[in-house]
Specification:
- By secondary structure, this protein is α/β, with parallel strands linked by helices.
- The protein has a single domain (about 5-135), classed as Ribonuclease H-like superfamily/Ribonuclease H (Nucleotidyltransferase, domain 5).
- About 40% of the residues lie in helices and about 25% in strands.
- The chain contains four helices and five strands.
- The protein has a five-stranded mixed β-sheet with strand order 3-2-1-4-5, sandwiched between helices.
- A hairpin with a 4-residue loop joins strand 2 (about 15-20) and strand 3 (about 25-35).
- It is globular and about 35 Å long.
- It starts with a strand and ends with a helix.
Length: about 140
C-alpha cells in the first residue's frame, strides 16, 4: 500500500511554490520552488510513488480583486491564474487527484509564523511561495 501524501502548489509565472506533506507522519517533508515544466515532472513522479492528492491554490475562484497595485499587479495575478489553470489541465489529463483551494491570505505569513504553525525548522529558510504551498496542505 502506497503512503498517502499531499502536494500543495502556489502557482506562479516564474517559480511555483511546492510542498510535500505526509499524512501519516503529519508533517511537511519538502518545500521547493519549480518552474512549470519541472513542477509537472515532480507531480508525475510523486503520483507514481504515492497515493497522492494535490491542493492547488485557485485564485480565479474568488470574485473580484483582492490584490492592490493597479494594472501591473492585475496582469501578474491574471498570468498566475492562467498558470494554475494549466496545472489543473495537466492533472486532469494525467488522472491525478486534486482539489482547488481558494486563497486564504497565507502569502502574508512571515517565516517565523509559518515555522511556529507547521513546526518547519526555523533554520531552513522559506519564501512566500513555499509558505503558501505548505499551508495549503498542513494539517490534513
Amino acid at each position: 500500500m502506497k503512503e498517502k501524501v499531499l502536494i500543495g502548489i502556489d502557482p506562479d509565472v516564474s517559480l511555483n511554490g511546492f510542498s510535500l506533506y505526509s499524512i501519516g507522519k503529519k508533517q511537511i517533508l519538502t518545500l521547493q520552488v519549480y518552474d512549470l515544466v519541472d513542477l509537472m515532472g515532480e507531480i508525475s513522479l510523486h503520483n507514481q510513488l504515492y497515493d497522492l492528492t494535490v491542493h492547488l491554490e485557485a485564485g480565479w475562484l474568488i470574485n473580484g480583486t483582492w490584490h492592490k497595485g493597479g494594472n501591473g499587479q492585475a496582469k501578474r495575478v491574471g498570468a498566475n491564474h492562467e498558470i494554475g489553470r494549466q496545472i489543473e489541465k495537466f492533472m486532469i489529463k494525467q488522472s491525478i487527484n486534486y482539489k482547488l483551494i481558494k486563497p486564504a491570505g497565507y502569502s502574508s505569513y512571515k517565516h517565523e509564523l509559518f515555522c511556529n504553525i507547521t513546526r518547519w525548522p526555523l533554520k531552513i529558510k522559506t519564501n512566500p511561495e513555499t509558505r503558501v504551498a505548505g499551508m495549503l496542505v498542513y494539517g490534513y
